[in-house]
Design goal:
The protein is an alpha+beta fold. Helices cover 35% and strands 25% of the residues. The chain binds adenosine-5'-diphosphate, thiamine diphosphate (TPP) and magnesium ion (MG) (3 copies).
């Protein structure tokens, strides 16, 4: 079955009829989009791709969830820079077998977040492909001049923090691969599965952190071990975190207590934020997160030395390498 009869008729259907952003000059319909950047802001630009068979299958995610997550993972990268998202573009390569309704559902999933964050779809590309669906979302964002958050700003003496719970998405994926998305999951399994299908990008936390003087920040796409190593390397510091402080949900402990730490360290796709701040800012940050309804936990400290990450558990220290999700070593 041909996915679409007419590429142009499809584009007409997904074209927004109104805009949230006042800086939008021309969106969908010309050779390129035109936007007017705000003079006192820096522009942020990122993209992430999701590939059928690699990031999702139709057994793990509905078309609506695929769309939602393709935008969510990019909003997570904007959050990790401390930014406000503004616009997005979508490139979609569609194989045979996908109905027009499936494709509209993908866009509906993206719209859920676009409406929440008041961001405009301003362009993209629609092409055919032989086998697997590929969706690439580009997000533009902005941050006050000098207020962007980098991975490279950790300093000895900082505390290390992480938002939310880690590992739930990987545990949810395991359940989905085992039973398929149409299975009737128990309530606690449903929490894990939902975390995999509808991750919440931590844009509000990124914004509140951007008000602080010095924060290093990264989002958890490939697992805590990988992200902490990225901060350690970018900042040229040592990070030590405590096994007992890794935030694990009640649900993951019920699902598989023994493997829960492994999911948290190496599973990925949590899309929480991990970073470091001066110890003097910690209480204030914690209070602001609590007020915003987001869990945030201190998990470790930063010290000087050759870049490395260590896990502390019952008195012993274990070096944690940059293992985690890697597209080319499985
Ligand atoms: N094929 C590519 N061409 C150019 N830059 C790339 C490519 N792949 C990744 N990057 C860049 O490498 C950096 C790390 O990418 P990635 O690990 O995917 O980041 P994240 O995990 O935050 O999404 C980013 O700055 C990204 O833009
Ligand atoms: C069917 C299926 N198999 C495996 C996974 C697990 N998985 C795929 S990509 C990925 C890591 C995150 O993706 P990546 O493209 O590395 O994101 P980025 O770091 O660029 O944000 C994980 C854990 C999945 N989501 N779905
Ligand atoms: Mg990426
Ligand atoms: Mg990232
Ligand atoms: Mg990413």
């Amino acid at each position: 079955m041909l996915a679409l009869h007419d590429e142009f008729a499809f584009i007409e259907q997904i074209k927004p009829t109104s805009a949230f952003q006042s800086g939008l000059i021309t969106g969908i319909g010309d050779d390129a989009a035109l936007v007017r950047p705000k003079i006192d802001m820096e522009q942020i630009i990122c993209l992430d791709t999701m590939v059928e068979g690699v990031h999702f299958t139709l057994d793990t995610m509905t078309p609506l969830q695929i769309g939602y997550k393709a935008l969510a993972v990019n909003l997570s990268d904007i959050a990790a820079m401390g930014g406000i998202p503004t616009y997005y573009l979508v490139s979609i390569a569609i194989p045979p077998g996908w109905s027009e309704q499936d494709l509209l559902s993908i866009y509906e999933g993206m719209e859920m977040l676009a409406n929440k964050y008041q961001i405009d779809l301003i362009g993209g590309d629609t092409v055919s492909i032989s086998d697997s669906l590929v969706i690439t979302v580009t997000v533009l964002g902005e941050v006050e001049k000098g207020k962007h958050l980098l991975r490279s700003r950790a300093t000895p003496g900082d505390i290390v923090f992480v938002t939310g719970f880690l590992g739930d998405s990987a545990a949810g994926l395991e359940l989905l691969l085992q039973h398929g998305k149409d299975h009737s999951f128990t309530d606690f399994e449903e929490v894990l599965v939902t975390k995999h299908q509808f991750p919440e990008p931590r844009v509000e936390v990124g914004r509140l952190l951007a008000a602080f003087e010095r924060v290093s920040l990264n989002d958890v796409s490939d697992g805590l071990a990988s992200e902490l190593n990225e901060i350690a390397k970018a900042s040229q510091v040592v990070i030590t975190f405590d096994q007992d402080d890794v935030p694990l949900s009640e649900q993951i402990k019920i699902h598989n207590n023994e493997k829960s730490l492994e999911y948290a360290l190496y599973g990925g796709e949590d899309f929480e934020l991990v970073g470091t701040v001066p110890a003097s800012d910690w209480n204030s940050i914690k209070q602001k997160c609590v007020a915003a309804g987001v869990i945030i936990r201190k998990i470790g400290t930063v010290s000087s030395g050759d870049p490395a990450v260590f896990l502390q558990s019952s008195g012993s220290l274990q070096k944690i390498d940059r293992k985690g999700y890697n597209h080319f070593s499985k």
